[in-house]
Design brief:
Blueprint: H1 3-23, H2 48-65, H3 67-70, E1 83-93, H4 101-115, E2 119-121, H5 124-134, H6 144-156, E3 163-176, E4 179-192, E5 198-209, H7 214-219
Parallel strand pairs: 1-2, 1-3
Antiparallel strand pairs: 3-4, 4-5
């Protein structure tokens, strides 16, 4: 075999190898996680492993304080009666798109507060309907006139409330040579509409993200 034939054969072999490699397709599979299985850790953004601990801690702190129940209790309210909370929604101020987790965060916070038996949560369907009727955004409820109009609409629907609850998700990022740390903060703010006083609690979780460069992989 001469040199030209050898080079042609080598080139064809390499081309066939690349074609075979390109033709390979990845496969996807799934499995049901049991209650004692750990949540998967998101490789690029936050997921269950981040949001669940934040919700558990922030809600537990807020309900455990007790100051909202006693210190800023409206004078017209009867002690021992559940307080009515109007949960406005979850505001995402992180650098990530949280997608369908926004709805899950809302539902998880809503469920945990209801389970506490300390408060009565107004159905979100009423809340959304009231905001839509007045054509206002949740953040506009801090304008006195908007708040009074919203209270009136909710009372007409048979859903009076004593507190506004806001949830805000923020993040801060620290970079280090391609790897980075992201600090997630979930803040719950409970506002007493009768006197304007509020209570605020938050939970923080740090998460590291790491990149594996192709050059490092090829060395092994």
């Amino acid at each position: 075999m001469n040199r030209r034939q050898f080079l042609n054969l080598t080139s064809m072999t390499a081309l066939c190898g690349l074609t075979t490699f390109a033709g390979c397709r990845g496969t996807q599979h799934a499995h049901v996680l049991k209650d004692n299985d750990k949540d998967l850790v998101g490789s690029h953004t936050a997921g269950s492993e981040t949001y669940k601990p934040l919700i558990d801690e922030s809600v537990a702190k807020l309900l455990g304080r007790g100051c909202v129940v006693t210190d800023i209790q409206p004078a017209a309210m009867t002690i021992g009666v559940k307080k009515n909370i109007c949960f406005i929604g979850v505001e995402n101020c992180t650098s990530e798109e949280i997608g369908d987790f926004k709805e899950q965060i809302y539902e998880m916070i809503d469920s945990k507060i209801n389970e506490s038996q300390q408060y009565h949560q107004i159905s979100r369907r009423y809340v959304d309907s009231g905001l839509k009727q007045l054509r206002i955004r949740p953040d506009e409820l801090f304008v006195k006139e908007n708040q009074r109009n919203f209270q009136t609409v909710m009372e007409e629907m048979g859903q009076p409330f004593d507190y506004l609850l806001y949830a805000k998700l923020t993040s801060g990022t620290t970079n280090q040579n391609g790897d980075y740390q992201r600090d997630y903060l979930l803040t719950l703010e409970l506002v007493n509409i009768h006197n304007g006083e509020f209570d605020k609690e938050s939970a923080r979780l740090r998460k590291g993200y790491h990149k594996t460069w192709l050059g490092k992989v090829l060395k092994y």
